[in-house]
Amino acid sequence: MVFNSYTFIVFFAIVLGLHNLPLAWRTKKINLLLASYLFYALWNPPFILLLWLSTVVDFYMARLIGGEERPLRRKLLLTVSLVLNLGMLSYFKYGGFLLENFTALLSAMGIAFQAAQPDIILPVGISFYTFVTLSYTLDVYRRKFAPEPSFLNFALFVTFFPHLVAGPIVRPEDLIPQFETPRRATAQQLSWGLFLLSLGLFMKVTVADGLLADTADLIFSLPFPVQTLDAWMGVLAFSSQIFCDFAGYSTCAIGVSLCLGFVLPDNFRYPYAAMGFQDFWRRWHITLSTWLRDYLYIPLGGNRKGPVRTYVNLMVTMLIGGLWHGASWTFVVWGALHGLFLCLERLIRQGLANRQAAIPMADGAVMSRASVVPASLAAPLARFGLVLLTLFLVNITWVFFRAPTFDGAMLLLLSMFGVISNGPPMLTNTALLTVGVVTVGLVGCHWLMRNTSVAEQAKRLPWWVLSAGWAGLSLLVVLSQKSSSSFIYFQF
Amino acid sequence: MNTPNYTKSAWLTLGLVLAFVAGWELYWRNQHLPIGYNDDESMWASKRRQVYESSPTRPVLIGSSRIKFDLDQGSWARITGEKPIQLSMDGTSPRPVLTDLGNDPNFKGTVIIDVTEMLFFSPDGSFPEKEAIKRVKAYPTWSLSQQASFQINRLLESGLLFLDDRNLALGPLLNLLPLPARPGTWGGPQFPREFFVVDQDRQSIMTPAFVADTALQNKVKGVWLDVGAHSPPNAVTGPALQAILDATKRSVEQIRARGGQVLFLRTPSDGIMRAAENKLYPREQYWDRLLAYTQTPGIYFEDYPALTRFSCPEWSHLTPADAVQFTEDLIPIVARKTGWPLGEPLSALLGQPIPTCR
């Protein structure tokens, strides 16, 4: 089920109604759990079995790990959980990719091998709920989180429908404690949750699907080069589309959850106003980047094992982050580019910090080596320039993320940089205007909002002004009428 | 800083949205547009699911827009007792749907294939073929959730005019912005909103306003000229044509091998459109060759005086009144040509010869 569907409206109304009935807390949680299974099963019922398997195995493995003191046995139990979760993910998500590459490798070695094409359907949200359950088992293993005694609470933590299929990727401490005491949204929370749901739907239905999808789809599907303007507008359209699609989903999820009285973590903080890639990953898909940091980058050694290992760890983390998004080499390149930019940025920052550390300041103080923004970049214009430079590089990486093949990506890049300049114009003035207005609006909004939040801004507005804006968003959703199209991140 | 009162905002928002939606709906009702349904993926999928109930009296119709206008499903049902299953898609080639039905081991029914040459013979990888493939591929993943949404959507669409996705959604409204055309680009066909509506059986019906207004008809003629100007200048020939014929033959034979039946149909066209079709797709090289190569019966409208007396107001499709007459005239011809038992009242007609032009 998707948030932008009539089915969801009916489903949510029923869930909300049941949750506000004078029932026992345990009964309400059972209602939420059953509703979450229904929410998932309405896509493809058999895949609910995978969800159950993951839930049951991780619940019991974590209990066994929690009660076990012998390090070897603890490791063994953790391995069982990892093998099951990563095994399922590998089979369903990477089975075809691995086979394809294995065949290509044999072929390159001169061995003729033709494997039958596996007909594997990717269960929706498997990448998300696998990371959710993994974080639980890993946290219990690391004694960061005590095993949850209630199977109901744990099952609801894994399955809670707002975050189940596309995040935010919740941690045990984010959600499990919230299931322990009765919760019901106040009228204020319910209203704010509905506002967030409207905002998320506006981002997804109106902006991503209604205004940008056709342009991005057209430009990325062409097998021939286009004019430079068209190439850039196609990439900018995708850049805004993927943000509005994914951040829209997260906003809906947070809003829906709040309507039920639960708080989910933020997943986006105006990433297109990021100054540098480090800042970008603190603002884009925050729950994934922190997951990768805590469960991959830091266990690999993080920045504690010298500069070379730090760069290697960064690259490994980003390569795996790229592969998490999809079983294709284009995603790996996307991750590699992000890794490369992160490494370069780290090098530059350290170089600048070293230089500044040696320069005594006017008052005799020495600028801290830990300073993030050099003095030359303190001016707003320079900062905005840095934002634009980051956005420019992020857009280059999006080409690999969205292009179906390397050839397609290269063709588009060559068109973008005028290397191939004889392509035809493809986009109408309406499409150019739409993408231009959305891009400028989005970047401007991110710049203005980069150090604040919607909630903080809403508090400053008179209630009727907020209402006028809210009504405007809702009306544009109604006018867009693009119901039921899937969110891009469901495929990941 | 204010103490936020989100609850008050929520109620005002609800009031504003309801007021706007009511006003918007009333505005469009005052424009006298008839209610229609969105001919989207779910609508198509709901029909695709019915193909296993197909029979000669309930054939599966595949093709482009012409058969959606020209074959009146109500008339067909009145005469044969059952409604056809409409799987044709506007502006697309029927070949991907034919391939899908051919590959479906459970499909043993009857197929009528509407041949609009410039779409049927569009090469692999062309826009008309890719658009049809999208829907065919989406069908197996038509989820229970989408099915439920479709039912709710249908209910809403039956009563609310403003839910017309083709004409009144944000995208089509933005296309009305008075922006100059960018040289060398084309935004696709922009039909006047009065052109047609689609009913819940996927029947396309010209609106009374369109039938009565030659200025609107001329606008659509202009759209066809525009489409022609942006289409490949030459028809597919040589190996590409042979590949199309091979693929068609394979699918037809797959269906027939399971006991199914196939009939090709060429519906009327007119004016400059007809002249261009004759020039680009000479009958002997395309239609006749298709029938001979696939060993399949076909009905070409020009072969039957009863089917030749219609004119298309915008060169390509029949008016609702003509569609009724065309269907009534077509059924005995189909019955005669194929021997399909198309309803009791026809049995008497089967003994009589059908006049032909050739």
From TrEMBL, chain A:
Locations listed in the record: Cell membrane
InterPro entries: Ac/AlaTfrase_AlgI/DltB, AlgI, MB_O-acyltransferase, MBOAT_fam
Transmembrane segments: 6-25, 37-56, 76-99, 120-138, 190-212, 246-264, 314-337, 381-401, 408-425, 431-449, 461-479
GO-annotated molecular function: acyltransferase activity
Entry keywords, A to Z: Acyltransferase, Cell membrane, Membrane, Transferase, Transmembrane, Transmembrane helix
UniProt GO cellular component terms: plasma membrane
Family the UniProt entry places it in: Belongs to the membrane-bound acyltransferase family.
The protein's name in its UniProt record: MBOAT family protein
Organism: Spirosoma sordidisoli
TrEMBL record, chain B:
Domain of life of the source: Bacteria
Name recorded for this polypeptide: Uncharacterized protein
Organism from which the protein derives: Spirosoma sordidisoli
